[in-house]
Amino acid sequence: MTLQQAAADFASLSDTLCSIVGAAHVLTQASDVAGYLEDWTGQYSAPALAVVRPGSTAQVAEVVKLCAAEGIAVVPQGGRTGLCGGGVPLVGQSSIVLSLTRMNAVRTLDPAGRTVTAEAGVVLEKLQAAALEHQLIFPLMFGAKGSCTIGGNLSTNAGGSNVVRYGTTRELCVGIEAVMPDGSVINALTGLRKDNTGYDLKDLLIGAEGTLGIITAAVFKLFPEPRARSTAFLSVPSLDTAIQVLNRLQDHTGGAVVAFEYMPKAAIDVICQVFPETRRPLDEDAPTGILVEVASSRPRDGEPLEDGSIRLEGEVMALLGELMEEGLVLDAMLAQSEQQRGNLWQMRERILESITDNGPAYHLDISLPLAHIAPFVEAMDPVMAALGFQPLTVGHLGDGNLHYALSAAAGETWGDLPLEAAKDQVFAKLTELNGSFSAEHGIGQSKLPVMRDLKEPAQLAIMRRIKAALDPLDIMNPGKLIPDVKKNLREDIE
Ligand SMILES: Cc1cc2nc3c(=O)[nH]c(=O)nc-3n(C[C@H](O)[C@H](O)[C@H](O)COP(=O)(O)OP(=O)(O)OC[C@H]3O[C@@H](n4cnc5c(N)ncnc54)[C@H](O)[C@@H]3O)c2cc1C
User: Fold this and answer.
1) Using an 8 Å Cβ cutoff, are 291 and 343 in contact?
2) Domain check: are 280 and 259 in the same one?
3) Is ligand 1 within 6 A of the CB of residue 81?
4) What's the confidence (pLDDT) of residue 493?
5) What is the pTM (predicted TM-score) of this model?
């Protein structure tokens, strides 16, 4: 079917869609749909037959059934902050965008059971605020928190800064509600922490980027609100030393490190260039800078000491003194107020925007075993420099995740640089060091080629079979996450 034919056929379906979700929520005018067709990076955009905005799980199910019957692709979409082109249509595809943003209710919060049940379109920051009203926290934390939705967080298995303590979105989720590609509804919103009744379909949908179904609601774990926090910026001699510092802090505080972020000088330079009001955390720039936060919910840790500081801060300060004497920390700045803490986090959260503003860059989102982080960076940085790139690296170092962004070195022109050769070098090193080419953000469209090349063929084949079993018509976000889904499915079946 040509796109023109699809559009003509769609016109006749439009009435049915309007009867399901209401005419005001079926958007077809160019000016109404424009904002839904492009992702945050601006690199991926394509037309859709319509943007449909259901207000309930039942409406999602009706829309999916209709699309299945008509062979129209469904592109689920949350806050559109994904960085891999997963939440926008493909060029030449006959699809609708299914925006979950109207489904934005926090359905229930159980303070005793420390769980919250929320709809997929709830913005992450709103969920955090709802938890705080009960002196609880929802610990998922990253720069897009004001726009991304929990449906998107689940579908990309989002990580962020607090994974070192609380885990990824997958580890935070204890129940899911979803509409499957045939329109059937899975209601597994029990919130049970133990439920050994066969395959965990929740885990299948988390990280599936909308290719297996539409998440409509979920249950998440909540945690006690910290009574005390200690946030510091450290200069350390090397990445290897940074890992030693992390472990010493964990040992000293009973595993209370909630964030351990790598922020080298090159990254801070770019932030200061794009946001000149940024205060550098240390007088002397740190080649290896670490933003660390330790938090405790124990009342004792929040007690004030004689000098006015709180106990946790005092303990962290004492340990940092020891580490400085041992040469493991060169310099340190401890946030003395909520304002200073906020400034440090604002600097961290501005990095992606700063790199984007700085000029063209290729963003590699990788992870490695902690012991292999230093060997990777020490091996790759000189290779990239020799090819004409300047790596602008930051990372959630505590969980082994590096955002390794390749920008043009001073005096180089982006278009002339050998990007493919650089990527090959990085991927070869990652393979050698047991790393992953995709730590956060998902695969979407942008990482399909490397998924095809590097994902273990046996695992890819199983993914294709799962996709074929659950979505035989390939209507759920086709062309994302799994490379060559149709071609290889046929090969698998034959
Ligand atoms: C400044 C900035 C900082 C970021 N930092 C981080 C970070 O530290 N860690 C991290 O992990 N990510 C980070 N991201 C990436 C992004 O915010 C996350 O991937 C986020 O989880 C996407 O949520 P979203 O609601 O915007 O999803 P979208 O971008 O709308 O969609 C993302 C994917 O999920 C699918 N999807 C969305 N909703 C549903 C649903 N209800 N059911 C099924 N599929 C669905 C879409 O089809 C798409 O494939 C950052 C992005 C920005 C812009």
Assistant:
1) no
2) yes
3) yes
4) 46
5) 0.93
Instruction: Round to whole Å and give the CA distance between 27 and 435.
Output: 43
**Cα-to-centroid distance, 440 and ligand 1 (Å):** 9
Read off the pLDDT of residues 263-272 as tens digits, 9 standing for 90 and up. 999 999 999 9
- Among the three residues 65, 99, 133, which one is the final residue of a domain in this structure? 99
Q: Give yes or no: residues 49 and 148 share one domain.
A: no
Ligand 1 proximity of 44 Cβ (cutoff 6 Å): no
Same domain, 216 and 111: yes
- State if residue 159 touches ligand 1 by the CB under 6 angstroms criterion: yes
Evaluate: CB of 181 within 6 angstroms of ligand 1: no
Ligand 1 and 80: CB distance under 6 A: yes
Question: Do 11 and 74 have their domain in common?
Answer: yes
Count of domains in the chain? 5
Structural domain including 473 reads: 455-493
User: What pLDDT does residue 364 have?
Assistant: 95
Q: Which regions in the chain score pLDDT beneath 70? A: 1-9, 486-494
CA of 251 to the centre of ligand 1 (A): 33
Residues across the chain: 494
Q: How confident is the model at residue 423, as a pLDDT?
A: 96
Instruction: Tell me if 213 sits within 8 A of 100, measured CB to CB.
Output: no
pLDDT for the residue numbered 39: 87
Q: Quick one: pLDDT at residue 285?
A: 76
| Block residue for tokens 């909540």 | 222
Query: Of 257, 233, 212, which Cα lies nearest the Cα of 470?
Result: 212
